[in-house]
Amino acid sequence: MNIAETLELETITLVEPLFSDLIYQEMDDLMTETSGKSGKILVDEEESPVLFAKSDENGFWTGCITMFREPSLALINLFEQFEWDMYQEDRETICDAIREYYSVRLCNTVIPGPDDLNPTRAKSIEALLKRTVGSQSDEICIDCCCGTGVGSLVLKKQGMHPLAYDNDESLLVRGIIEKRLIPERTMWIDGRMIHRFMKEKASLVCGFMIGEIHPFNAHIWQEIITAACRVSERALFTAGTEPEIRQIEEWMRDTGKKGEIFESDADPIYDRWVCYSE
Domains in the chain and their CATH numbers? Predict the structure, then answer.
């Protein structure tokens, strides 16, 4: 079910330009700078408002998402000026609908990156998951820095329910086109901000072929990896070199996770070095 259908509308336009903008309360200004004729408010199962929608005099509906931020006083005051209807849906269903909305927008506006999938890599990741994670049917997991989605492809095959994100929009579009990434489970965000988009911890975070880690970008990778570890119970990261994986293991320890490092012979280039933490 998409956002419009949830509110019994044919179409709706969200004022936030990007999915990553949903955490910023300033986005409410794009909603409150114009008046409204009538409104709809969507709440989750805890009756917290997650979406405000208003129509103008021409019947054009716009909405803003407050699922990942507190609604501003100005937004609340705006909706007190006209009549509105309330709708309710569970949070996970709403999240999926919002992610799908922005994934579709992304695919309509961004040129896809190259298809870089080596078919043999999917098999090596599958073997790695069986060796470490095992069977985790229906578990929610995170595909950190997912690229074009080879990790999500294998995680789904293993019966898990991946939530993928990356900061490279062209790779995400390629992954969606190739159906390795699911639109409603994909986010274009800065990985350092993943905690802002997670209400509960995932059972597992996977980061396949993290890197390349250099002195000039190590602080960024540290923030990405520690952020992912803090929103997950367990962690599995791979890298191309031993120094990189040992750096990752150190960052994992900073979050209270004790990782086991080993070398994998399944792929001599990708995912060669592995760190897994229960």
Answer: 3-109 (no CATH), 119-277 (3.40.50.150)
